[in-house]
Task: inverse folding
């Protein structure tokens, strides 16, 4: 079925660690500037949905996980996850930095658990949940993924 993924508890058994090219202070400065809302991937998805006639609410505070996009008419929620921050399995962009590995492993693992918990709460409340990964929105995949998103929304919205 479109958009439904079973949770498999992911442990970072074989962590791929990459050497950090920045100093610790520079890395800290970069990470501090990462925004949680209105990211480029979110904006791309919202623009696409709007161009196809979908109307939505964004970053809804009163729903678990503060969803990036909420389509009330279709009872569907869309999360746009950054591959690094949300631990996208088997994705190059999800490699952990070589410095402070223990911290990053714990941080990403807790994000994965929180994401799973929030998705379950939303499903129990009758919402359809779709997750789009940042890497799926790269130029070579974007059109295909966004076309699939429309199909998912329409398909999942039928069973409301």
Result:
């Amino acid at each position: 079925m479109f958009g439904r993924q079973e949770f498999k508890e992911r442990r970072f058994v074989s962590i791929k660690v990459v050497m950090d090219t920045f100093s610790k202070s520079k890395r800290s400065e970069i990470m501090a500037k990462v925004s949680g809302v209105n990211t480029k991937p979110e904006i791309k998805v919202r623009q696409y949905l709007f161009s196809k006639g979908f109307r939505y609410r964004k970053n809804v505070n009163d729903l678990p996980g503060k969803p990036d996009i909420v389509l009330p008419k279709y009872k569907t929620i869309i999360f746009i996850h950054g591959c690094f921050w949300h631990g996208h399995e088997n994705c190059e962009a999800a490699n952990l930095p070589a410095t402070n590995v223990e911290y990053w492993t714990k941080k990403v693992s807790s994000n994965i658990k929180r994401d799973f918990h929030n998705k379950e709460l939303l499903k129990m409340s009758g919402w359809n949940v779709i997750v789009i990964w940042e890497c799926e929105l790269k130029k070579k995949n974007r059109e295909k993924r966004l076309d699939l998103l429309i199909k998912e929304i329409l398909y999942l919205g039928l069973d409301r």
User: Anything to note?
Assistant: The domain at 18-27+35-158 is CATH 3.40.960.10 (Endonuclease; Chain A). The mean pLDDT is 83.
